[in-house]
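Margin note: ligand = magnesium ion.
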Amino acid sequence: MNAGNEQSVRIVEVGARDGLQNEELTLPPSIRVQLLEKLASAGLRTIEAGAFVSPRWVPQMAGSDEVFKALPAHSDVTWTALVPNVQGLEAALATGCREVAVFAAASEAFSQKNINCSIAESLLRFQQVMVRARDAGVRVRGYVSCVMGCPFTGHVKPEAVAAVSASLYGMGCYEISLGDTIGTGTPAATKALIEACSKVIPVSAMAGHFHDTYGMAIANIYAALETGVRVFDSSVAGLGGCPYSPGATGNVATEDVLYLLDGLALNHGVDLEALIDTGEFINAQLGRETASRVARALLAKRRRKS
Ligand code: HMG
Ligand code: MG
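Resulting structure:
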């Protein structure tokens, strides 16, 4: 690693939200709670558990209130929720949720498709969310989508991402997750993106959120690690994608990220074998195969041994 002295990486597990929101099958809250408990047992400490969005827009996240109410209180686990507006925040607060994330885009077209408003309008909504969240003592993370490409308009300039990131950080988001929603980014583009953003927010406040549509996610994480980023979002078994990003596959699989980090001797605190079992649990519920190459390889190895 060229940059960043920090020898540990924080994983933000997004499979139960970003993953499940794009699976054809809508799972009931009880199964989602089982998944979340298994993720916590595997050692994940920041876990996105649902989204307080319109069930008309994302039916898979309906019942997030039930999910949050059923989650066990672990002193060292942060369960987080996506909220698009104050209405979503109020619904999250009513369940006892202690951390939320707002989600903006660096592309106007994506902002309209995803949350039915312009980027500027979304930032005004998020300002209102920040005020209410601060009153309630709840931390807010900020996402920026389409950081290396938009499914509707193509290329997105790093400067456009930096501008939205600066707004979110300026209004009080403690961390900005840079989302390669359609997975078109490459390591060179990742480095250019982080360089542009580092002019307006500290690298220590950035997270990488890579989708693996073009198979570049692990390479992009490596590039981001080299620039000093130490927080990454990922999905167990590589679940999901984004309902408003046609053709996008799931997030990078958490299992694959762990294998990379182990190879680099970077601490992450997650039990890979337990996470593979968790992936098998949710894959069986959804009737799908894992998208994690590491899980596939290690499951095959298990089968050969047995
Ligand atoms: P809208 O239709 O413009 O909302 O949707 P509205 O304010 O006009 O209200 C219309 C109806 O929605 C009303 O209900 C409201 O009560 C209701 P009605 O009176 O018609 O019965 N409503 C809500 N219901 C539940 N929860 C709420 C809420 N707000 C209003 N919070 C809205 C605007 C933002 C609500 C909608 O567009 C929406 O929910 N969008 C969410 C889309 C979404 O979740 N996308 C996926 C997440 S983003 C992502 O995956 C990217 C990311 O992973 C990073 C990356 O990969 O790049 C984060
Ligand atoms: Mg995503």
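The radius of gyration is 18 Å.
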